[in-house]
Amino acid sequence: MQLLRPFALALLASVACVDAFVNLPVGPINMSVAVPVASVPSSLLQADGTVRTVACSDASPCPATGTELVTLRCVSSVCRLAPFPLGVTTPDIDLTTYDTYRSYADGLTAVRIAAVSLQLTGARPNNTLGPVEFYWSGATPTPEYRLGTIPATALTAGSATIPVVVDNAGTDALVAAILGGAVRFRVRIAGTLEVGGGALPDPQLGLNLNLLLHLEGSL
User: Fold this and answer.
1) Structural element, H or E, at residue 2
2) How far apart, in whole angstroms, are the C-alpha atoms of residue 160 and residue 78?
3) What does the pLDDT look like over 144-160, one tens digit per residue?
4) Which domain covers residue 192, as residue numbers?
């Protein structure tokens, strides 16, 4: 019986600690950003909400809009609205609010940022989103690391979910922070929305950020 005791203890230890992996969806983190569409002069708009065609050239520049919030620029001899800036920072993303993370936290051995995406609502077909840059930081705004980017993307619908091209160095830094015990971080989004040949977007655009974390560890 004494000879069996070490074997039994080893068996219990092996049963109590199991290597496992799981994908953890983080989000959606819901945000909104205001767009000054109300400042676009009605004289520049057609009945369908698109910007009317106004010819321009070096000798005949685009007319002034009467506000610093909205400007026109000459693009291929036609006046177009300058892109609207999009800038917003998520609230703190707290991994401890997720049951799956808490299950793995004590035995976490590896993390991978499997995917990042942005869901946009309130735009219009033929608007162009981006480029959009994503940066992550800890509880304070600095230091800040690039998380990824969305290149300029022509929209075919007012709502779209667009994958983020992740930055390897920036995501490696986030992984290192999580493995080092960090459980809170935030993401800053900086980009543009260009009306182009489409209609004006909604005054409030929805920006919903989603991340997919791959966790490995001992349970």
Assistant:
1) none
2) 27
3) 999 999 999 999 999 99
4) 16-52+83-218
